[in-house]
Amino acid sequence: MLAYPPLGCTYTKGVSLSMTSMAEQLAKKQKEISVSEFFERNRQILGFDSPTKALLMAVKEAVDNSLDACEEAGILPDISVKLEKVDDKEFKMTVEDNGPGIVPTMIPNVFGRLLFGSRFHAIRQSRGQQGIGISATVMYGQITTGKPSRITSKTEKDKPAAVKLIMINTKHNTPDVVGPAPPNDYVMWDEKEHGTRVEINLNGRYIASKQSVYEYLRQTAIVNPHTNISFVDPDGNSSTFTRAWDKLPPPTKEIRPHPEGLELGTLMNLGRATRVKNLKEFLKTDFCRISDRLAKEIVERSGLRETAKTTQMDLDQYKALLGAMQSAKYLPPPTDCLSPIGEALIRKGLKNVLDDMRPEFYSPPVTRSPRVYSGNPFQAEVGIVYGGNLPADQPVTILRFANRVPLLYQQGACVLTKSVESVDWRRYGLEQRGGSGIPFGPAIIMVHVASTKVPFTSEAKEAVASIPEIQGEIELALRECGRRLKVHLNKKDTKVRTKAKFEIVQEILPLIAEKSAKIVKKPVPPLSGTITKIMNVVWVDDSVTYEKKRHRVKVDIYNYTPKQTRFNLHAVVPASSIELLRAEPRPVEVKEDGKITWELRPIRSTEKFTVAFELEGLEPELYDENELYASGIDPSMIIGADPLPGDWDVARLKVTEMQAEPAAPAEEEEEEVDYDEQTEALNDD
Amino acid sequence: MTDYSKEAVQRLYEIAESIYDQIDDGKVPKMVIPLRTKSNIRFDPKHSVWKYGPAKGARTAKKTQGALMLLRTMYVMELIEDMIKESKSSTLREMYYISEGWGKGKFHSQDESNLLAEDLEIVTGLMREDFKLRPEENGASVFGNITIQETDRKGKSKRINCMDDVGDSGYGIPYNVESDKVKLLETGADFIIAIETGGMFDRLVENGFAEDFNSVLVHLKGQPARSTRRFVKRVNEELKLPVVVFTDGDPWSFRIFASVAYGAIKTAHISEFLATPTAEYVGITASDIENYKLPTDKLTDRDTKALEAELKDPRFNDEFWRNEIELMLKLNKKAEQQALAKYGLDYVTDKYLPEKLGEMGALR
Predict the structure, then answer these.
(1) Which of A584, B3, B22, B286 is close enough to B327 for a disulfide, judged by CB 3.0 to 4.6 Å?
(2) Do B284 and B179 fall into the same domain?
């Protein structure tokens, strides 16, 4: 028996049904009731509980499979989805991909057999896990319309595509190929070198809403920016989500189970299925992060012999083994089994899909380091989109994703939602009554959890269970992303306030001076004293524009203090292969990681000084807000550039929560009431 | 140039000079002005009216609004100087439109320009007429046995009896009622009754109230213009006629009375010229609503807020007003003057006013 079937066929692959534990137990049940009956009764478990949802689930299962297949084969996915109305109830769903295709002999098992698939046992991140989804969809279609599903698959250029009409023998849970008769079982399919087309007729209901097929595909596009998705709805309207990034996510590796948080039943199953026959070798080869030394230590602590045969150990012995394993310390599991989207691509994906909302700000996304729950590595990621045309008076939209798959149902039961609810968003600039619950404001919060085993609350994979470790990580990611949002909002706020003063000293004050001079018939008085008293700050006003494939950055520095000032200006630009051009003045240092430093010449009181540079070779959306720091100056005397963080030279800059609020300009006057800010209405009527 | 004009030019020059000097000294320019708020009015025992107290606010260039008002002040002063030089004048509304050409200094509403004109009065101690600025609104009408002499725009004097020489709509009070324009000659009347609404004014004219009760009717036209208040004040002082005020029974009408008798908050810097401290309130009171069983309307939220604000207004801080305001809040009702018509068109002149005025001892 193979505990970890080799990765053979790249589609929902897998080899034998002579599997272990759960499958066997389920198989036993299947003898008592037919699979069809079981499925009928348990539709909701698989997510087919309403006609609306059934249609969505069908598309989801087919698209998930296509994406998994393409990615495993290293192909950038091109997926098209089409829904056609057959009659009042019946729809025909066509999902087509450019994946590697499926060898003809495997097609029946992949689509016509429940619980067929190898991912169930593979410890690595993938969309499908149980091997239920696509065959359940075939079964649902069959039950509701009586029609077979039509699968067309092409594996090689210059070869015809295999066509199979599949039905499921519900009594035996085996696939029946009901057509077409040769020679029609092969067709020419010239548009594609390889790929699979799935056509399933099923009963359903199409709606356009938050939980629609369209929304599912839109959200899929957000977290899979490497994907092209086109969609034709039942009314014939077509939409396309264009690929925003032409590199595949790095392939995920399969890993052996991590011993932390292992459960007894799992341990026993592994022990009985292992290929090695003694305990110490079992520990070393069937788990990750157990070295020879550690294996020896565990065996000793368990009171068992190193040479004990794991296939013959009894329950008590396994309990002792588990106890010993749990008391040991392990390195975290390797993380190349996970495929987080990554900060840059989250931003790209969000921008690609949401830009018609004209959001004012994409908070730099956060990808946390991998962690482990019950031996399963997982990773939390968060992105926040703010402002623009997003509605300000409604609860924020929460986009939930697990292993790059959108979760549209069961929002309230999901730990992703709970994590959002338990963060105090008032600190990050959103409204929230009492500091908990879903916040209000013009924002979209995206949460993604990637794991080798996402702990869904049900087979329908609609919500993630409340695992404290996962919730904790998501909350940390949310807070970090929230802080970045707050930094932006603070910056905006400061800008607005400073802008008003800027208008006073640049426009209004000169006019007052000029007019009063005219009335008293004297020369226009110098303004510098008054200006520095109103401002008393060095003001940094920066901008980024993108034109002719270059980012042009301009930083205007106004010394509105009474004294000459001199300080160092620092900027951080994306490090990846960027050409820094036409920097004026020349920076004294440009580091590999994108940190640039200028030692500015002294700037006289009320003088303006400009720093400019250009960046080439950067996607427009990857740089839209400058990150500016200043050193060698009292932070309370400068607006628009933050104090240089302490870890500037140590590591990548982290945005710190501490943002120095500019001190109010020192005024010599006593507190006096502002005559023009009296709000009381003077009119008596 | 008249003495007043010279003084106006001189005072305005001083303001500009102060702003200029502050900038020249490297200071943030500002103007200090008494706060024009409810909490900053004080009873002036000498004139028995309410005037601004000692609290001051600063209009400074530190904030955008303050800076803009200072800039506008400069433009307005320039305008005034030009008008004085050329012997022109403009209405406040015209000034608002003139500001269209002032760029950043443009007024955003006429309230802003009116307030600025008043600010200048307060700071200089002069009247807006001295600055060649006049209101576009006229005072209201007078009907009754009082004889005045008005000098018209051609310099000709006209002697007018406000009952015999005018139609039923009465004598129209000009915006300038100072003695160079309007002289109060003589009266055969016993008292002035100032009336809020035109409907009631006409009712009293039609019912012969001026003749039968030997009274002078003055239409206030809602919240009365300065000239109306000034006219009433002068008749009261110079011709020794007592003044009673007859308005609707709601919070806004109480304020109309307050501005006639105590001085308005907005013009508290010149209360001694405008207010008639001996004026008495006839009604409609909250008690009238109950006693005369008048048809009513429910108080709106705005009404309630206005009444609550009046409870904190020092001008209403006496037993009579506290009781009336609290009663009105309790009844949660208000009534119009014309609600008296419930009992017939003559009821107000045959019954209500004689009763009320009798109680007050206003009838001889």
Answers:
(1) B286
(2) yes
Q: How far apart are CA B336 and CA B249, in angstroms?
A: 6
* Chain A residues with beta carbon closer than 8 angstroms to that of B38: 680
pTM for the predicted model, two decimal places: 0.63
* Tokens describing residue A10: 């790249």
Domain hosting B168: range is 141-360
Q: Is residue A420 part of a domain?
A: yes
Judging contacts by C-beta atoms under 8 Å, the chain A residues touching residue B115 are 682
Q: Are residues B114 and B228 in the same domain?
A: no
Split into its structural domains, chain B has a count of 2
CATH classification at residue A280: 1.10.8.50
For A281, residues 6+ apart whose C-beta sits below 8 A from its C-beta are none
Query: What contacts A602, CB < 8 A, 6 or more positions away?
Result: A564, A565, A566
B79 and B159 assigned to the same domain? no
Among B82, B110, B134, the domain boundary falls at B134
CA of B237 vs chain A CAs: smallest distance (Å): 25
Instruction: Give the catalytic positions of B in this structure.
Output: 97
pLDDT single digits (tens) A451-498: 988 999 887 788 999 999 999 999 999 998 998 888 788 878 877 877
* Partners of A631 in beta bridges: A568
List of chain A residues with pLDDT < 50: 1-19, 118-120, 650-669, 685
Residue where one domain finishes, among candidates B112, B134, B156: B134
Kindly state whether residues B280 and B296 are assigned to the same domain.
yes
Write down the ipTM of this complex.
0.83
Residue of chain A whose Cα is closest to the Cα of B252 = A685
Residue A344 counted as domain residue: no
Average pLDDT, chain B: 91
Is A156 contained in some domain?
yes
Residues of A in contact with B74 (CB under 8 A): 511-512, 515-516, 519
Question: Is B88 an 8 Å CB contact of chain A?
Answer: no
Residue at A493 is within a domain: no
Contact B16 A676 (CB under 8 A): no
Note down the domain range covering A231. Answer: 21-241
Tell me if chain A has a CB within 8 Å of the CB of B58. yes
Q: How far is A605 from chain B (nearest CA, A)?
A: 13
Q: What pLDDT is stored for residue A601 in this prediction?
A: 93
Long-range contacts from B196-199, C-beta under 8 angstroms, 24+ separation: B196/B220, B196/B222, B196/B245, B196/B246, B196/B247, B196/B248, B196/B253, B196/B256, B196/B337, B197/B222, B197/B247, B197/B248, B197/B336, B197/B337, B197/B338, B199/B337, B199/B338
**Hey, is the C-beta of B77 within 8 angstroms of any chain A C-beta?**
yes
Residues of B in contact with A519 (CB under 8 A): 12-13, 16-17, 20, 74, 77-78, 81
Chain A CB within 8 Å of residue B38 CB: yes
User: B32 forms bridges with which residues in the sheet?
Assistant: B58
Number of domains in chain A: 4
Q: How far is A564 from chain B (nearest CA, A)?
A: 17
Q: Say what the pLDDT of residue A179 is.
A: 79
Q: Which of A272, A402, A412, A414 is nearest to A340 (CA)?
A: A402
Angle at B217 (CA atoms; ends B215, B223), nearest 5 degrees? 140
pLDDT at residue number B278: 93
